[in-house]
Predict the 3D structure of the following.
Amino acid sequence: CNEVDDDCDGVVDPAPVCATFASCKAAAAAGHTASGVFRLQPGPGLAVFEVWCDQATDGGGWTLVGSIAGRALDDRRSAWYPDLATLAPQGQDAGVWHGLRALDSRFDVRFACRASPGAADAPFTVDLSMYDTGWYTEWTTGSDGASCFSEGNGAGADLPPARRNNLSGQYLTQGTQWRAGYLEGEDQCGATEDFTVDFADRGMDGDPNDGTDWGEDDGALKCGRAGLADGQWFLFAREAGRLLRQGAYRVSDGPSWVGHESVSCIDACEARYGAAEWACSRAAAAPDRRAWLDGWGDVATFCGPASEGAPEAFVAPDDGPYDCGAAGCSYSAFVDDHDCDRQNHCWRRVAPLAFVPPAAGSGGTLGRLDGDPWRVCAADDATAWVAADRQGRYAPTTVCRALGYAEADAWGGHCGQVCGQCPGGPRYDGVGGDAVRLTGLVHWRCRR
């Protein structure tokens, strides 16, 4: 990025070689749809990191946040490390990069692995997407013990997310329960030999050889099967934003097939409701990224009783005429031909809800074990200082999360600092702690 041809392709390096983006999703939105290494700067004034972006799989926009060889990843926060720039890792940095935390409150996450070491372009053995979760924020909170991922035989279970097996194309809607009635990601919060998921089974202690297990279960490595001695494991994250259902339309409400141009469900939603980032579904419950289509001489394939529809962006031939003269040669998500009366539902992607810092002077008792109620001394989008007037026992992580922050990362204070003790003022004693339960400490900082 010094106005010379560093990559030896015969031209001065253009974007995206030298451009910076907040994330791989931001790069994709800017039109950079080829996968590769991008320069990411998740916020103004922050360092720039080289990170692998997958812009092809499951809609693209995937930022690599975990990459390791020879052992599985851990559900703990990590700084950036070099293997995040490659899908052929050599090292054993086991943490999850926290670089995207400030970009969204919820993320799509993707679990991929190879059962044996492979080159960067080698196929994955397992590749699972799970949508609109709080898991990435959980994993990047701090230590392994501070991350509680679907632990305790269902005690820490979350609403099952919508999920997709990217190798088979199978999709499960939000709320579709795992076979055991919950996902077991780890035995307990501090279980350093546990971090696992499965597509439909229970994760830990389920069937480890069903082809979709990922991670580590009681120290046993899993990638499609258990008992591995080697392999490569990856985690990707993508800002989820939010999908709101805008409305629905019947396929057969479209124009006559005569002279009609083939359109995908995405195209039809945009034409009906305006320009936006759209997703589709075959039912109103949740976006499953599939759609019903009618076809030239063929209504059964994508609209028949046994059909599962087609991918939401599918159209064949691309932008070509629907009345193409040969059975099965063209399909459209909005055409009046064979009375395909099924409805496609349109979902608009909207920005995440803006974070509103708590007001100075506000307070509460959640997370107080004993002592005075805590109060907010000062807060902004990144941090908040919290204190109480006298010594007590507090669970600062609980307080921070109640305020919309992720963790407590600093303690103590002196006169003249925010919440610092001054002569004749409240007592803030500066005693240390483990950021899980603090005794005799009444002043800490929350960070998003």
Q: What stands out?
A: The first helix runs from residue 24 to 29. The first strand starts at residue 20 and ends at 21. The chain has three domains: 20-239, 243-350, 363-447. Residues 243-350 form one domain.
